[in-house]
Design a protein that fits this description.
The protein is α/β, with parallel strands linked by helices and 590 residues long. 46% of the residues lie in helices and 11% in strands. The strands form three sheets. The chain has a six-stranded mixed sheet. It has a five-stranded mixed sheet with strand order 1-4-3-2-5. It has a three-stranded antiparallel sheet with strand order 13-12-14. The protein starts with 6 loop residues before the first strand and ends with a helix. Helix 4 runs parallel beside helix 6. Zinc ion binds next to helix 15.
Length: 590
């Protein structure tokens, strides 16, 4: 289980952060308010004490689109989803959070809002009122196709019943956060024009034993009355974790009871009644296998991050209603945003629009998108943060080092921008690499090229100052990971050969060891090979920078003056980089 750390924050600071759109999600706890910043602000977690009226606060949160988490059991650590999640707040939930707070503040004073304890507080959208259709979801065509079938079950159920076909009961949407799982579920309801009963896994898990289970029962009873309809259980992992078989703390019993009830309910009806259960999770590996048995969630639909074409389509969806300047090219934006999920792209468009508004522009320009991209990637610009002159110099040499080495490397991410303006937390300066295409496969030489590029920053520091700063630690981590993957997964080492020592786990699956059982000699050899490829890459980076020492110097001086290097000026610098003789052979053979 993850341990989460919250730092204390003043209430006034919290309000300020809400108003500057930094806050992603707020959770009302019995004794405090916990909140979490958006990924662009480092996902940091804080807690604070309510100082003012809860109604004013909830209004404020709503107007800034802050997600309000339902009161949760301390046992569940609901995933804080990356990206913007515009959660639709039903009144019921608000009242719930409110009652929750009061209940504890009054220490049993009892205000009797008359919430039946076991009643599911599901959000219900009637007759396709989710207002969302497949047209709102882009870049996940395969998932849409599979779900189209579910729409057909719901709308033409008779056709299937007549022929005696069994309609599936449960569909599990699996994929990284922010890829559109919730959106897809709503779209299914919207397309089929059926009611959509939605609850999040964490809402089932209560402090009181039995409450979760009775909520499940209530939810299914309601659904049967409204059939045909969809039950949507978000964050299924919050209730669906593998049953432990009796942990030390009784708290698990509660979750297991809830899970058992869910299994019972799913077994207790047949799909022909017109209820289809859709659930979503980004941690499928933690789910109890019982959930996937036939007649339960036996269909799985993968909702993955979009490729470039998909990103263009998603951007198209989100720029509807946004006035765009003529220079805006969604293709270019999509090319720069490899790895973004749909929610990140939605966030990007919104940030760009905010930027344009802040600058009193009528339309959003490409420059706004570029700025927004940096925000989303690296966090808020913080010009105010002061570096000592030496620190600034170190950062500048470091970043130029990456760029110069990168300029000679094949295929991979060309450096398109270097900046030494401190941004957000963490990275002091950064180099922005623009992958030309989405790469799932790296060729051997590209891999070496990336390693050398990663080590270029540190190499520059070594050459100029004769020592390295702590700023390079992230690069080293990345380089080590890459080298290790090269050896263990891609079979790229002369001595070990093409044996995969790692089982290829889907990227978003966390936890669990993926390494195959290996002998200690092989482990030693792996370490040796990893070290060898890193040493070689480091040597190459050093050699390149020594050869281009003059350019390293002049480019750094420019960067120190301008703080940012990009476009023509950067290109001109990079075309001057000279390649050492050994480069070609090293790239080819290591
Ligand atoms: P998930 O449930 O997978 O974490 P959500 O469905 O909650 O992701 O996505 C959050 C928001 O991000 C959506 O409301 C939508 O604005 C945007 N979004 C995510 N994926 C897509 C997509 N494939 N197409 C269009 N918008 C998307
Ligand atoms: Mg979701
Ligand atoms: Zn670096």
């Amino acid at each position: 289980m993850r341990t989460e750390t919250y730092s204390r924050s003043a209430y006034s600071k919290f309000i300020e952060q809400v108003k500057s759109s930094q806050v992603q999600r707020v959770t009302f706890k019995p004794d405090r308010i916990e909140y979490c910043l958006k990924p662009a602000f480092g996902n940091q977690q804080y807690y604070t004490q309510l100082d003012g009226s809860i109604e004013d606060l909830t209004h404020l949160l709503q107007s800034y689109g802050v997600e309000i988490a339902p009161p949760e059991n301390t046992q569940t650590n609901a995933e804080t989803n990356a990206g913007i999640l515009s959660l639709i707040l039903s009144l019921g939930m608000l009242v719930g959070a409110f009652a929750w707070l009061l209940k504890f503040n009054n220490a049993g004073g009892g205000i009797g809002l008359g919430m039946g304890m076991g009643k599911s507080n599901a959000r219900i959208y009637n007759q396709g009122k989710t207002g969302i259709t497949f047209a709102d979801v882009a870049g996940v065509d395969e998932a849409k196709q599979e779900l189209q079938e579910v729409v057909d079950f719901l709308t033409n159920g008779e056709k299937y019943r007549k022929i005696g076909a069994k309609i599936p009961k449960g569909v599990l949407l699996v994929g990284p956060p922010g890829t559109g799982k919730t959106l897809l579920a709503k779209a299914v309801a919207g397309e089929a024009g059926v009611p959509f009963l939605s609850m999040s896994g964490s809402e089932f898990v209560e402090l009181y034993v039995g409450v979760g289970a009775s909520r499940v029962r209530d939810l299914f009873n309601r659904a049967k009355r409204q059939a045909p309809c969809i039950i949507f259980i978000d964050e299924l992992d919050a209730i669906g974790k593998t049953r432990s078989g009796g942990g030390p703390n009784g708290g698990n019993d509660e979750r297991e009871q809830t899970l058992n009830q869910l299994l019972t309910e799913m077994d207790g009806f047949n799909g022909n009644e017109g209820v289809i259960v859709i659930a979503a999770t980004n941690r499928p590996e933690t789910l109890d296998p019982a959930l996937r048995r036939p007649g339960r969630f036996d269909r799985q639909v993968l909702v993955d991050r979009p490729d470039k074409i998909g990103r263009i389509d998603i951007l198209k969806v989100h720029v509807q209603g946004v006035s765009l300047g003529e220079d805006v090219d969604l293709k270019v934006i999509a090319a720069k945003s490899a790895g973004f999920a749909g929610a990140d792209l939605a966030n990007l468009v919104n940030e760009a629009a905010l930027m344009a508004a802040r600058n009193n522009r009528q339309a959003v320009l490409m420059a706004d998108f570029n700025e927004a991209m940096e925000r989303v990637i690296a966090g808020l610009e913080k010009r105010s943060r002061i570096l000592t002159p030496l620190e600034r110099q170190t950062v500048a040499y470091h970043e130029v080092g990456h760029a110069l080495v990168g300029a000679l490397m094949p295929g991979n991410s060309k450096v398109s921008k270097i900046s030494i303006m401190p941004r957000g937390l963490g990275a002091l300066g950064y180099t922005l690499q623009t992958p030309e295409t989405d790469r799932f496969l790296l060729l051997e030489d590209e891999l070496r090229g990336q390693l050398a590029t990663l080590l270029g920053g540190r190499a520059a520091e070594e050459i100029v100052f004769g020592k390295v700063s702590t700023g390079a630690s992230d690069d080293i981590q990345k380089a080590t990971d890459l080298a290790e993957r090269a050896v263990t997964q891609y079979g790229m080492s002369a001595t070990l050969g093409p044996i995969a020592f790692e089982k290829n786990a889907a990227q978003f699956l966390e936890g669990g060891s993926t390494r195959r059982a290996i002998s200690s000699e092989v482990a030693v050899e792996i370490d040796r090979q990893v070290k060898l490829s890193i040493d070689q890459a480091r040597e190459m980076a050093l050699e390149i920078l020594r050869l281009n020492r003059g350019l390293l110097e002049s480019a750094t001086q420019v960067l120190l003056k301008t703080e940012v290097l990009e476009g023509k000026i950067l290109e001109e610098i990079l075309t001057q980089v000279q390649a050492p003789e050994k480069l070609t052979t090293w790239l080819a053979n290591g």
